[in-house]
Amino acid sequence: MDSSIAWPNDVVARYLTVAGAIVDLTHGDRYYPTDDGIGETRNHTLATCTGCRAAEEFSHWRVVKRMTFDDKVRDPEAADREACKWAQAHASECRALPRPTV
């Protein structure tokens, strides 16, 4: 594989599988409707294998337990770390061949 090939703009990390496919990490936002009609946008880091198409999504939001309430804090770095661990583990085991480019 030629490492000089430019990464897509939205890729934040890339892992090479044992069979030569790629696991890409990207950031994204997904809208979810809620009962109150307002909805919410959830930020995440997505790890996707270009060989077998396995994917895992890691939320940028964490629940922090406070003394009298729970608080949601945004922590994209923690999501990136979790996604990197998943991508590394997947890349070390995935035997799917890279999909051909047309």
Query: What is the element string, with H for helices and E for strands?
Result: EEEEEEH
For the sheet with most strands, the description reads: 4 strands, antiparallel
Taking the alpha carbons of the first and last residues, their distance comes to 17 Å
- Ranges where pLDDT stays below 50 over 5 or more residues in a row are none
Shape: elongated
Mean pLDDT: 87
Radius of gyration: 17 Å
Count of DSSP H/I helices: 1
- Strand residue percentage: 35-45%
What is the percent of helical residues? Answer: 10-25%
Tell me the total number of β-strands: 6
Number of domains: 1
User: What oligomerization state is this entry in?
Assistant: single chain
| Strand ordering within the main sheet | 1-2-3-4
- Structural class call reads alpha+beta
Give a structural overview:
The mean pLDDT is 87. This protein has one domain. The chain has one helix at 76-93; strands at 11-16, 22-32, 40-49, 55-59, 61-65, 70-74. The longest helix has 18 residues, at 76-93. It contains one helix and six strands. It is of the alpha+beta class and 102 residues long. 18% of the residues lie in helices and 41% in strands. It is elongated. Strands 1-2-3-4 form a four-stranded antiparallel sheet, with helices on one face. A hairpin with a 4-residue loop joins β5 and β6.
